[in-house]
Amino acid sequence: MESVKNIFKKNIRQYAMLIALVVIMAYFQVATNGILLVPMNVTNLILQNGYVFILAIGMTLTILTGGNIDLSVGSLCALIGAIVGTLSITMKVNIVLTIIIALVLGVAIGIWQGFWIAYIRIPAFIVTLAGMLLFRGLTITMLKGLTLAPFPESFQKISSGFVPDIFNGFGTKLNFTAIFVGILISFIYIYIQLKKRIKSRKSGFEISNLTLFLTKIIGIVFLINLFFYWLSRYKGIPIGLIIIGILIMVYSVFTTKTVPGRYLYAMGGNEKAAKLSGINTNKVLFLSYVNMAVLSAVAGVMFSSRINSASPQAGLNFELDAIAACFIGGASAYGGVGTVVGAIIGALVMGVLNNGMSILGIGSDWQMSIKGLVLLIAVAFDVISKKKSKA
């Protein structure tokens, strides 16, 4: 049986950030007199930071390849917003077709940037910096410096719509569809964990003791159901949360359970060794940037829907939020280490800090300073822990 100490050591970054998130939430809950975790504010917290969650997922994959980042994601979000606005507002193009065009454009831009980075081997920093300037310029040119608004109502529902309650609340003010989904997810989670434990035992791998295993299961199931109960007290499950949830699930499975996903870690750990073992590292790097551009397009669509406009100033500092979320969530600045779930935890830390400080009336200058300090501490923790493990 694996001890609690060993488990904590193996997952120190994730557990440390999870504990930090809980502490930060508890502090702001007290400091804001309970406003932070009001059901309506919890929903707003998710929707306001939806673009960070999506960009952090894509940024995690690029960082895994060797500490590479993408500086162009904010400008690309703005460009996608401008294209979607021009098509749907000015040209009255069907919303579904508009979104498809936006995603295809994301693929094309990803191919463009990925080619220079992966096959010509121009540093990713330079290529994406050029992309940041190029896409911002194209956005301003397309919008002629003006803001386009409003979007059609069907487009707005991407970020402002909610899943209807099929149970009609059973005569209460609660959304029982949200409660049912929470229970369903809990059963799925329990099944996956039990199956994983049984498989590990049969294979002869070390497993955690039963008490710790059950404590973890009960704790996570409690948090899942508490979260969905909180959603049920407002309007239920936001459509934006469904999109984010699907992305988290798909990319978590991709990075942990598939061969191409493990290639990312192998390349980030040692690219030369990965090449010698038969991995096409150029292709891995290329596809990670194509993927990043597609997720940037998704984030651009969601953000435009959220603010209900296409603005030349949209997407400012989005890349910094995404990068910070990844590093705070446990990704290594050297590559090869990091998880999708960790990036989401990092994004939540950033989101709670933003939301909590805004409620308290703290100025944007201090907010930026505090977030910068949190990022520095997170990366310093990564570097120090690496040195200790080597020693």
From TrEMBL:
The keyword Transcription regulation does not apply. This is Xylose transport system permease protein XylH. InterPro entries: ABC_transp_permease. Part of the binding-protein-dependent transport system for D-xylose. Probably responsible for the translocation of the substrate across the membrane. It is found in: Cell membrane. The keyword rRNA processing does not apply. It is a multi-pass membrane protein. PANTHER family: ABC TRANSPORTER PERMEASE PROTEIN YPHD-RELATED-RELATED, XYLOSE TRANSPORT SYSTEM PERMEASE PROTEIN XYLH. The lineage of its organism: Bacteria, Bacillati, Bacillota, Clostridia, Eubacteriales. It comes from Clostridium omnivorum. Keywords: Cell inner membrane, Cell membrane, Membrane, Sugar transport, Transmembrane, Transmembrane helix, Transport. The chain crosses the membrane at residues 15-39, 45-64, 71-89, 95-115, 122-143, 174-192, 213-231, 237-254, 284-303.
